[in-house]
Structures are given as structure tokens and as C-alpha cells.
Amino acid sequence: MSTENTATAAAAAHDDGAAGSRPTPQEAWETLAEGNRRFVAGDPGHPNQNAERRSTLTSGQEPIAVIFGCSDSRLAAEIIFDVGLGDVFVIRTAGQVIDDAVLGSLEYSVDVLKIPLIVVLGHDSCGAVTATVESYISGDMPPGFIRSLVERITPSVLAGRRRGLEEIDDFVAEHVDQTCDRLVETSQAVRDAVEAGRTAVVGLTYSLAGGTAQPGRVLGALQV
User: Fold this and answer.
1) Does the residue 224 lie in any domain?
2) Is 46 annotated as a binding residue?
3) Region Disordered: start and end of each range (predicted)?
4) Is pLDDT above 80 for 206?
5) Do 68 and 31 touch, CB atoms closer than 8 A?
């Protein structure tokens, strides 16, 4: 099948408003994984990015995944997974740190929008994780509200140190995994959705150079 046809088929498969049914966590993951493969190959299909798609979304949305990722400008979810309007519900904070607004947004996504897949998306060379590791080593906290970011990432750095980690990118992967665990531990709504099989959680670490999104922690009924 050609790349254009593959992209068209993928778009049709997750155009839930037209299909009238929700994808499983596995189907949602496979759509994102295939989109990332097209992006890495340099041959994206750009599905669901036209005026027709825009007009179909005026009455509501049925995204297939919620992507909770770092705010880094190089980590644009719709681009790296080759999806379009209405396909993903995106939440972004520096270092993908959790706060009340993030938890509220995630609970809305699983309880109201019935989204079957939560993706926690980190990336290599993350500045927020780097700042936290440097703070741990030096004992000095950064000024202003950057300190709040560091404080929220510090538990992941401590967990990494207990495992003997040294490299920043290893701490990034650890932080992604720890964030997946914290989401399920902190939010009753997310935990209930995962335990019921309605939603799964997967942690991904994105390569800025290669464009790939490598899986880490998986919680729920999902094969990656």
C-alpha cells in the first residue's frame, strides 16, 4: 500500500465521528505508532488537516489519545504522530510535570471524552530534567517558579539515582516512567479507567534527532 493510501486508511480508521464507535487502547496506539513511522521516514500523510475535517468537528470532538508531553517547541504531538484536527487531546508542561490542572484535564479526557489512550511524552536532552539533575548535584535551587518544576521532577531524579543512573537521557526515561505511575496513583478517575480496560497509559521518550518515540512504561491492556 502506498504512503498516501496508508495515511488515508489511518485517517478513516480514527475518524470516530464518522465511524460512530470508539477505538480500543490498542487501536489508538497502532494509529499513533504508524503515524510516527511515517514521520520518521519523512513521508507523512498529514491526515485530517483540511477544511472538510475542520467542519466536521464544530459539534464536538472524539480524540483517540491524550498526549501529556513536555512544552519543548521541538515536540509537536500532531506532527510527530502525523495526525490532524480532532485526533489528539494535548496537555503540555515543561518537563511534563503534573499539577492540578493537568490532572483535571486528564480526568476530563478519560471520563468525559472517553479517550482510550494516555501517552506520557518526554524527550532526550530535556532542559527541565537537566536542571533538576544539576540542582540535585549542586544543592542549589533555581529562582522563581522554575523551582516548582525542579521540585516536581526531583522524585524521578532520586529514583534514578537509587538505580545508579548517570546520563541525562536515562533520567529522562526514568521521569517518563515515574510520571506514568504517578498519574495512576494520584488520579482515581485515571486508575479506574485503566483497571476497567477503558484506557491504557504508555510512556514514550522522543529522539530529537531521529524522530522516533520509544516506549517505556505501559499500564493497562496494551501491547507496544
Assistant:
1) no
2) no
3) 1-27, 38-57
4) yes
5) no
